Amino acid sequence: MTQSVLDTQKTASRLLIGGALAVVVIVGAAALVLLFSLPDANLFNEKVARLFVETDLTSEADIRLLEILAQSGTAFEGVLASYRVIIAVLLVFGAALLAATLVFLILVLTLNRRIRDITRQGLEIVSLTIARDRNAVLLNDFEFTLTPAAIETLAVLAEARLDDDILTGAEIEAMISGRNAADCDEAAGATRIKRLRDALGSQIVGELLVRNVARKGYVLSVDKKVLRIS
Questions:
Q1: Residue-wise pLDDT tens digits, 187-224
Q2: Cα–Cα distance measured from residue 102 to residue 137, given in angstroms and rounded to the nearest whole number
């Protein structure tokens, strides 16, 4: 499982770097296209200057008109400068959103792959301690408070795991009730297993910790070395 996690992290890192480079290239190309597609800010002023040179305007009204045109050219230059600033801000904002979306997407894919690995390989349990005196189970760094009946079921499964045994539902019921296994119902033991899984509070934890072996019975999917019963 450790190797699988390392492979997943390497793949996620490669995807993140490749995605970031793709975002930079796309945004850079879009910026160049937009900026170069804008008209030259001095184009209008050049036309007005050419009009001054090529046209013989002597009346006061004509001169006033040319002054207005020159002022319009200056205003047009300011508008284009504002457009360039707005476009730059929008491109930076868009690049940030794309990068954030990419990061979240890769995180989701990584978590999904991690969950699939856990589902296939089972829980990675470092320690499992059953404290009968306070009806609690310490699973790695998590503590579950169970009912006395659930604790007894889990303890029976733990003792069987220490002996490398797989218990049927009838055998579980017999060991808890003190009766003969032949006199116990298979469904009664299955009910105890279901209640134990429900008491653990997580479907993934319950299903993977207490494993059902086809046509054999139930067993704890735990290494014997990490089991502690007190």
A1: 988 898 888 888 876 555 666 678 778 878 888 877 78
A2: 40
Q: Are 193 and 95 in contact (CB under 8 A)?
A: no
Distance from C-alpha of 83 to C-alpha of 13, rounded to nearest angstrom: 37
Q: Report how far residue 227's alpha carbon sits from residue 140's, in angstroms, rounded to the nearest whole number.
A: 11
Q: Please provide residue 193's backbone torsions phi and psi, each rounded to the nearest 5 degrees.
A: -65, -40
pLDDT tens digits for range 133-177: 888 888 777 787 888 888 899 889 988 888 888 999 899 999 998
Q: What fold, for 128-229?
A: Arc Repressor Mutant, subunit A (1.10.10)
Nearest to 228 by CA among 147, 126, 122: 126
- The structural domains of the chain, with segments of one domain joined by +, span 2-121, 128-229
Q: What is the DSSP string of 187-212?
A: HHHHHHHHHHHHHHS-HHHHHHHEEE
Q: Among all chains, which residue has been given the structure tokens 């200057």?
A: 49
Q: Which two tokens stand for residue 160?
A: 């069987």
